[in-house]
Amino acid sequence: MFTAADLFDLTQTEHAAIFDGCHHAWEALKKIELYLARVARQNPPPRFPGARIGDRVLIGEGTVVEPGALIKGPAIIGKNCQIRHNAYLRENVIIGDDCVVGNSSELKNALIFNGAQVPHYNYIGDSILGHKAHLGAGVKISNIKLLAGNITVAADGVTLDTGLRKFGALLGDGAEAGCNAVLNPGSILGRGAVVYPNVFWRGILPANMIAKNKAEIEVVVKRAE
Predict the structure, then answer these.
(1) 23 annotated active-site
(2) What is the CATH superfamily name and number for domain 4-211?
(3) Which of 23, 24, 85, 120 is flagged as catalytic?
(4) In 193-207, which positions are buried (b, 16+ CB within 10 angstroms) versus exposed (e)?
């Protein structure tokens, strides 16, 4: 489940060429910067008062960038997207059509397929989100280990060195992470997979599987004051 075709419908991005020659989908993360090098300098679009937009940013028709948003660039943003107040798009971001990037969400070196939503207080670094993938409020994708070394991915008893010092997560088409979940470096969620709220996830979650937090909630009598 590590190839782009395993995780993503490549017809749901205008930028499928970025996966050309990639054996593993995460290899595309190294190619985003070079891919965006073709974005020519231009005057920032004047139709978004109150937003700060760099001079290497392409924005599709029908997309709204709200006041307070900062798009540093280089970046390509598709059609009919919502880039909401206080969104922060750093270097090397590609966003498809009909996407949402919401309040206090930060993206860096990321590829977002059509219809994906990153709506509230999210961090997405060095990651790929598939078609209609969705993050609940407060979901963070951690993209670097505390200890030195490249990110590794383990499957079937075999550990693969990704060759990447920074690698957050791959979310397949329709995958979801609930509110305040944390996806640790090198996490891979298959198509339709779900991580429940507050889960601290690491590793591979196959397609259409659910990761639940088994912590029990204790209910006690309220003491008189």
Answers:
(1) no
(2) Hexapeptide repeat proteins (2.160.10.10)
(3) 120
(4) bbbbeebebeebbeb
